[in-house]
């Protein structure tokens, strides 16, 4: 007979959820951290610390990853709202392309600008630029026509551009 106590089911659940969510959470955060690896690690860590506090007694949310992502998103928004972004060459940030900028400063500026937008606008642009979702996928998710999504993207980009324009360095062509 073994002296090892039987594994605690709550502890096993914590470990399972941690293993299932850590990599997707870090991927989510790192795309939104503007190329700052330390920030991505800190936010991922802080989101998990908050989960430990909020989920005491193994009271897990129905969707742990969704809870962690929402917490991480709020932490990032708060972080970027407090930051004064660096100015970047206007060519480093193409708001028409559905890609995260290669330059860490441009990525940080994009994330800072997203934090300044209304939540719906920011989420739409995040899905498009940071998650790489196309117009058709967004239209399906939002139950809108592609044309309506394109209009929302256009208005959201315009609002974002208003926040970012003072931080663009005009390049000599």
Structure description:
With 173 residues, the chain is mainly alpha-helical. The chain has 2 domains: 74 residues, Rna Polymerase Sigma Factor, Chain: A (Orthogonal Bundle); 82 residues, Arc Repressor Mutant, subunit A, CATH 1.10.10.10. Helix content is 65%, strand content 2%. A two-stranded parallel ribbon has the order 1-2. The longest helix has 24 residues. The chain is globular and about 75 Å long.
List keywords for this structure.
173 residues, mainly alpha, Rna Polymerase Sigma Factor, Chain: A, Arc Repressor Mutant, subunit A, two-stranded parallel ribbon, 7 helices, 2 strands, 65% helix, 2% strand, globular
Strand arrangement, largest sheet?
Answer: 1-2
The helix/strand series, from N terminus to C terminus, equals HHHEHHHHE
What's the CATH H-level superfamily name of the largest domain?
A: Winged helix-like DNA-binding domain superfamily/Winged helix DNA-binding domain
Characterize the biggest β-sheet: 2 strands, parallel
Q: Which class best fits the helix and strand makeup?
A: mainly alpha
Shape: globular
Q: Helix segment count?
A: 7
| Helix residue percentage | 55-70%
Number of individual domains: 2
Q: Average pLDDT, to the nearest integer? A: 89
Beta-strand share of residues: under 5%
Which SSEs are present, and which pair or pack?
Elements: H1 9-32, H2 37-54, H3 64-82, E1 88-89, H4 104-116, H5 119-130, H6 135-142, H7 146-164, E2 168-169
Parallel strand pairs: 1-2
Outline of the structure:
The chain has 173 residues and is mainly alpha-helical. It has helices at 9-32, 37-54, 64-82, 104-116, 119-130, 135-142, 146-164; strands spanning 88-89, 168-169. It has a two-stranded parallel sheet.
């Amino acid at each position: 007979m073994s002296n090892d106590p039987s594994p605690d089911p709550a502890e096993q659940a914590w470990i399972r959820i941690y293993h299932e969510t850590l990599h997707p959470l870090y991927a989510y955060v790192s795309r939104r951290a503007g190329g700052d690896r330390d920030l991505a690690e800190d936010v991922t860590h802080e989101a998990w610390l908050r989960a430990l506090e909020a989920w005491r007694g193994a009271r897990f949310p129905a969707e742990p990853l969704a809870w962690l992502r929402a917490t991480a998103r709020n932490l990032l928004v708060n972080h970027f709202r407090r930051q004064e972004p660096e100015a970047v060459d206007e060519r480093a940030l193409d708001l028409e392309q559905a890609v995260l900028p290669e330059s860490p400063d441009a990525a940080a500026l994009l994330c800072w600008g997203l934090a300044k937008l209304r939540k719906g606008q920011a989420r739409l642009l995040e899905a498009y630029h940071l998650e790489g979702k196309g117009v058709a996928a967004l239209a399906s998710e939002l139950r809108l026509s592609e044309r309506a999504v394109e209009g929302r993207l256009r208005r959201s980009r315009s609002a974002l551009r208003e926040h970012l324009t003072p931080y663009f360095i005009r390049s000599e062509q």
